[in-house]
Amino acid sequence: MASNSLQGKVIIITGGTKGIGLAIAQRVSAAGASVVLNYSRDASAAEAAIASLPATGGSADRALVVKADASDPAQIRDLVERTVAKFGRIDVLVANAGTMPLQDLEHLTESTFDSTFALNVKGPLFLTQAASPHMPPGGRVIFISTGVARFSSVLPGYSLYAATKGAVEQLTRVLSKDLGRKGITVNAVAPGPTDTELFREGKSEAMIKGIASANPFNRLGTPSEIAEVVAFVASPESSWVSGQIIGANGAAFV
């Protein structure tokens, strides 16, 4: 059973309607948090996600869904403003929205480079800039990285994705010093291969099975396992953890 250590906390989760983001939302909702779910396109999936939160049942006083492009600073500011208008503050920010195009150097395009860095790096940075003035001491900023960022034997198609997450990890280290002056921690959770739609996109079943079999546990991680790590980092119990990249990978990439 989830603890209630997040009771009363206000948590923004970008890309919160599917996969890891949805699992995080369900976990922190069960721990008593009010949840703001951001989505970019699928309104029906967003409403279904809100309705699935265990402690709200879609209750309007504990949940908010906001359509916004998480790579666009203007829309990010609107997300923050709507959150503060409803709940008065932000306690935890989970910058989960991301994209993972698989293109090797030969096939990489400038437009893919720009859009990937915009969503994976620019979005989390400017979301933190917009949200942090509304975060009290004890606030938490949580980025999502990947084990691929520190593993050298990855396939060539991951080069762009790994570069964006390397940038996120360095932002984590530097922003932890910046926001630490306000009593706000900054960390990143770095999943290994996790069974989500985003992970499966563009991969054959044989490739997915091969990746799973390479793990010592002979399987992929699950979104709920990543959500448990994020919930700890979001909690008051993680007060002396900041500037860290926390692997959640079942001993992969070590």
TrEMBL record:
Residues 9-192 form the Ketoreductase domain. One of its GO terms (molecular function) is oxidoreductase activity, acting on CH-OH group of donors. InterPro entries: KR_dom (IPR057326), NAD(P)-bd_dom_sf (IPR036291), Sc_DH/Rdtase_CS (IPR020904), SDR_fam (IPR002347). Keywords: NADP, Oxidoreductase. The keyword Oxidoreductase applies. Gene3D superfamilies: NAD(P)-binding Rossmann-like Domain. Belongs to the short-chain dehydrogenases/reductases (SDR) family. This is Ketoreductase domain-containing protein. It comes from Xylaria multiplex. The lineage of its organism: Eukaryota, Fungi, Dikarya, Ascomycota, Pezizomycotina.
